[in-house]
């Protein structure tokens, strides 16, 4: 069981695709602050007890023995001779947070079972092994998911949560000292095995590519905790998951190989605040390999050009681990990186502490309008299956809203779900909604996303394992009407009595927003979607200016500017021209009111000593730095801070970003076009099927509902929760359409005059 042993560090060799930014070692300040950080992480309960650690090791040992017995049993059942039966072997590997050494109490253990060629996935793994586990008293909550993109078996063994994958190799016998890091292990394997092996191979490669494993682990623990506190830890919701954060932290460790966690955390925010996505983050050069497997390369693969925040895995076949990121979630994360950078600057000046950095994001105070997605089922098993399916589709709702409103309406999905204890077999998800900041507001302008929500519900209801009782309801709810079960203890919190970092930041942003506005409508639009003491300072306006004035690479040639502003298919709509021309691409760059922070107090050594030469390792890049012609800081440099800023810019030089293209139609949304272009008749509605023609993919026509089950996002003066009701069907072309009686008042989401919404609905 396990993975190849690794030491505590890889010092003495250059790691990464560029030279480090700084070789400077820790100062006394860094040592003190790192001790504070480690103590902080211990106090918040991020480390498991020794007893739990021993229990996990025992469970893994037991599981390894179970799969060895399983493979011998199926070998005998398949008629293999006794010698082959005795030689038959299977082996358990770990990956993910457990393998990286950053797991916390009660965390799942990601495991991989590697078996021989005659042990099949369908019949033997999900058949015989599943049967063996189901008969063991130590096993509970056994839940196989054979049809997943990466087939998995979930269960608890003596209370320890296990996620078990399976890889069938082409070997007749699995050696006990098997090294799965070798590319040859992938020969003659199916796609599911390649994906299953990828987790272990990537995890082990990360540990090989960081200069100091202990510093990497402490920094990663910190960043994982921070991401969860700030609501940006969730791959399925369109943010980043565990492997993504590990890769981002590992790259910072490569760039600052001698730094302690305190400095690594600070530089994490500094580097990624300045990072110009979609420049990819890579720990090593991408290998083409000899097995013909497809690797991430936007120069060759058109689908790769749609990725907004590429974070590339280091093991063959290299792929983008963060393809779920949307323009909305990228905007939120870049804003959080900016906030973290500001706090780290303040900490260096003794004006903030770790509490400020880890302050929880008050999601339900941040917006005035939310979507509430309620799901329910008949029993626990059905709800578990239904939840898994709905969660996998929630990202589509964000993408659809972005596409159908040309990014004028921005979504912030909450990464978790909430349980209402008064309602069994039920849970809720929430999304914050706001108008794109910085866009002039036209009086009475509305967002009608009823068809968008209708398409989402239609997509969800195609679940092949659907059972009676599996229901989904999408409602609009205003902030003051958020249900109390989402708050700790079921009690809505009062306004904070003392100023927090976020509240002070929001106040400063509000003051600057009013000072810089010439029209009352612009002020209202900029402040819309916020609450006192809570405002995300977005960067959409500055992104356009920065991209136009930048002397560095942008995602497409400047000749494509008109397409950048347009809607899918190159159609430029009036709506898309109201906001920033580049927002639809997701290339949001954070606004920085001041220069990047200077080096950590007490660590300002000579700039020439700190900054190593940087070079681009791949020939043919649009903007490349000649090999061995590094960044040499002269006396003319204003500070090591400015030199570091330039170094970060140079790191992003490479051959990939010049081949990026602005997204036109993400592949996963293409299937919806058939739905939008046909007569829709969805079941489970009391109103009966309704028919209406729907506009084409360009979306130039208003977004309205297409049938009686169609939801509209509605507001009532009372502020109560209202399900998104069907809209009156409107002809989008000259084709005549029979009028449909509207049973309930139609009220569209209106950010400019919420109080008048009900009056305009009649």
TrEMBL record:
GO terms for biological process: mRNA processing; RNA 3'-end processing. Signal peptide: none annotated. The keyword rRNA processing does not apply. The keyword Transferase applies. Its EC number is 2.7.7.19. CDD domains: NT_PAP_TUTase. Residues 215-359 form the Poly(A) polymerase central domain. Residues 1-10 have a biased composition (Gly residues). It catalyses: RNA(n) + ATP = RNA(n)-3'-adenine ribonucleotide + diphosphate. Residues 544-562, 598-615 have a biased composition (Polar residues). Keywords: ATP-binding, Magnesium, Metal-binding, mRNA processing, Nucleotide-binding, Nucleotidyltransferase, Nucleus, Transferase. Gene3D superfamilies: 1.10.1410.10, Beta Polymerase, domain 2, Poly(A) polymerase predicted RNA binding domain. This is polynucleotide adenylyltransferase. Pfam families: PAP_central, PAP_NTPase, PAP_RNA-bind. It is found in: Nucleus. Its cofactor is Mg(2+); Mn(2+). Residues 363-421 form the Poly(A) polymerase RNA-binding domain. It comes from Gossypium barbadense. Residues 16-210 form the Poly(A) polymerase nucleotidyltransferase domain. Belongs to the poly(A) polymerase family. One of its GO terms (molecular function) is poly(A) RNA polymerase activity. It is an enzyme of class 2 (transferase). Residues 1-21, 485-615 are annotated as: Disordered. One of its GO terms (cellular component) is nucleus.
